[in-house]
Amino acid sequence: MGRRLQPSRNVDYLARQLETIWQEIPQHTIRNLYQSMARWVAACIQSWQKRHIHSAYTRCFDRQKMDQRTCIKFCVKNEIKCTDTFRMLTVAYGEATLDRSNVYRWYKMFSKGREDVNDEERAGRPSTSTTDEKINEVEKMILANRQITVREVAEDLNISIGSCHSIFINDLGIRRVAAKFVPKLLNCDQKQHRMNIANEMLDSVRDDPNLLQRVITGDEAGVVHNEFLPQGRTVNKEYYLQVMRNLRQAIRQKRPDLWKNKNWLLHHDNAPAHTSLLVRDFLAKNNTLMMPQPPYSPDLAPCDFFLFPKLKRPMKGRRYATLEEIKTASKEELKRF
Predict the structure, then answer these.
(1) How many CB atoms lie within 10 A of CB 217?
(2) H/E/C letters for each residue in 83-136?
(3) What does pTM read for this prediction?
(4) 4, 78, 119, 214: least surrounded by Cβ within 10 Å?
């Protein structure tokens, strides 16, 4: 006998949590959600009905077409004239009768010995865009530049965007991933922790109006330090440790008053390289003050919601031939901050 599954002891607790979360949602949000769902369901039903009706009509038309061809074949076998065949089909099928030219064409084919009433397979127009040469060229371009867009590939190879999409997905098995922030649903503890940190930071600003001028994260007075990740490298704890050392030297040169008073604060997110034991020991030994950062909160990291979008906006839509051109353009935009 199989073992009976016992209900989880946490069901009641989870139910209470869900009820609490549901009560926290504003009523107008729930109303808008219901209205959106109703419109979406109605649109889905309407679309399904159109597809269903069109599919039923197509199946019925195909069946009648096959039936009429069978009737034409029967008339040929019984040596009934083509004009009489067309007249009898018109009486039997009315407006759904095949046109005169089709009836004559199939009558002639059956008279020459054809037996099959189905259409012959068509080879179709040969594709000039999805050849082996084009596929190899697309693959080389992608391997050379992983950031290239489908439109750029299509323009360089003089093929349509649809053919380029087909090569990407069907032939190379490649899909494009957007480098965007994906919102994460926080649990109750994470929401409370986020609120506590936000209130703590607000209290700190009220107590010290000049607090933000002492935060090193890309402040309004300009970028303190920037460096580009070498090709083939990843941001691990060893690399980020060297970045912290370079940052301290930059602060000593560009913010001598903050360096002298030792009252500057470092604000970075909770990336694994930032929170590694190696980096935390280095910051602790040098008495570096840290601004708190709640988990999964990129909107509270100025580099994420202010610096990077503002840096990308003027560079968007422009093409760069080399990596050095990208670095040069980035440095020029950083100087404008």
Answers:
(1) 20
(2) HHHHHHHHHHHHHHCCCHHHHHHHHHHHHCCCCCCCCCCCCCCCCCCCCHHHHH
(3) 0.43
(4) 4
